Amino acid sequence: MKIVVTGGLGFIGSHTVVELQNEGFEVIAIDNLSNSSLDVLDGIERITGKKPQFENLDLRDKLAVQHFFKANENISGVIHFAASKAVGESVENPLLYYENNLNSLIYLLQELQQKPAANFIFSSSCTVYGQAENMPITEDASIQTAMSPYGNTKQIGEEIIKDVAKVSAINAILLRYFNPIGAHQSAEIGELPLGVPQNLVPFITQTAIGLREKLSVFGNDYPTPDGTAIRDYIHVVDLAKAHVVAMQRLLNKKNIESVEIFNLGTGTGSSVLEVIQAFEKVSNQKLNYQIVGRREGDITEAYANTEKANSILGWKTELSLEDALSSAWKWEKKIRNK
Fold first, then answer.
1. Phi, psi of 331 (to 5 degrees)
2. CA-CA distance, 19 to 40, in Å (whole number)?
3. Which residues make Cβ contacts (< 8 Å) with residue 196, sequence separation at least 6?
4. By percentage, how much of the chain surpasses pLDDT 90?
5. DSSP element (H, E) containing 197
6. Crossing angle for the helix pair 104-112 and 62-71, nearest 10 degrees?
7. Does the annotation count 98 as an active-site position?
8. N or C: more exposed end of the chain, with fewer CB within 10 A?
9. Neighbours of 2 (CB within 10 A)
């Protein structure tokens, strides 16, 4: 079966391509290389023994999307990662996020809704919950006002998919994930942000390797045990495997509703300082960090209730925070030749 993975050379996308190929799927990876590199294809090939078909395509180009689907009619499913994803950047440049994240989704769905059957997995986010009132967060938690344009694009994206599924043969699973970190254990692929990292762990590893002078911890006055914000950090390999399980659910017609929603996390929250301490432990590196003011768009805490994914999808995380940080450090050292 042929699966399209948009953003297929990105952080989560590339790991998902690996897991799909490991399960015998044929993969077409779409990417515009705006936040990724062609070298990732070689890393995927070294891990799996097979290089996926690659299309350098910008999903904001409606005609290019139409042409792609005309040329590739025998597609069994689409996993849609391609999107801009930095909370802080979305606050500074909201129109970039609305154009990129929503137009690309709409153009994909316009092609899929014409098919007699279409399986679609959407890369959503725990940001749709805003600052949830209760922890851990269940899929039934109310959708709060988004704290950032990025979060808002995920909320709107989910609404668009639900509306389209009502009037078409699209079956979709919306995967709301928490904070993906780590790298493949082979250190052949991992997170490689272009420019200054917007996420905690690559900033930690770049600081430890000497690429950044110091790590900024945004706020130590949150109402948490140590004052720093709490998140649910999930190993990217565990996350990638969940996408394969979700796609198999759709292909085997096991879904109960045309649109299903699952949280993907570990079920455990870790504070920024706890992540720093765990990294120092696994790397034997002392990290240079400083406390600075809070960052606009950030929430106090978010961690998942994973019971629905565990019981219905039959998926659960297998790798620990330490596993993820160790793999991220191994990857960082490899790409810096250290």
1. -65, -45
2. 14
3. 203, 212
4. 91
5. none
6. 30
7. no
8. C
9. 14
Listed residue (29, 37, 14, 34) closest to 240, CA to CA = 14
Min mean pLDDT across 21-25, 146-150, 302-306 is at 146-150
CB-side exposure of 285: number of CA atoms within 13 Å? Answer: 19
Which one, of 267, 205, 186, lies nearest residue 233 by Cα? 267
Over residues 112-129, mean pLDDT: 95
Provide the 10 A C-beta neighbour count for residue 133.
10
Question: Which among 31, 26, 23, 24 has a CA at the least distance from the CA of 11?
Answer: 31
- Share of the chain residues as helix, strand and coil, in percent rounded to the nearest 5: 40, 20, 40
Residue 276, pLDDT > 90, answer: yes
Torsion of CA 184, 82, 195, 326, to 10 degrees: -20
**Distances from the Cα of 63 to the Cα of 8, 28, 102, angstroms:** 20, 18, 16
Give the Cα separation of 89 and 272 in Å (integer): 20
Rounded mean pLDDT of 48-73? 97
- Residue 196's pLDDT band, with cuts at 50, 70 and 90, is confident
Any idea how long the chain is? Answer: 338
Model-level pTM greater than 0.85? Answer: yes
Q: Facing residues of 55 across strands?
A: 30
* 178: its two tokens: 């928490």
Which residues make Cβ contacts (< 8 Å) with residue 71, sequence separation at least 6?
none
Choice among 107, 129, 150, 222 that is catalytic? 150
Q: Is 215:287 a contact under the CB 8 Å cutoff?
A: yes
Per-residue pLDDT, averaged over 179-183, amounts to 97
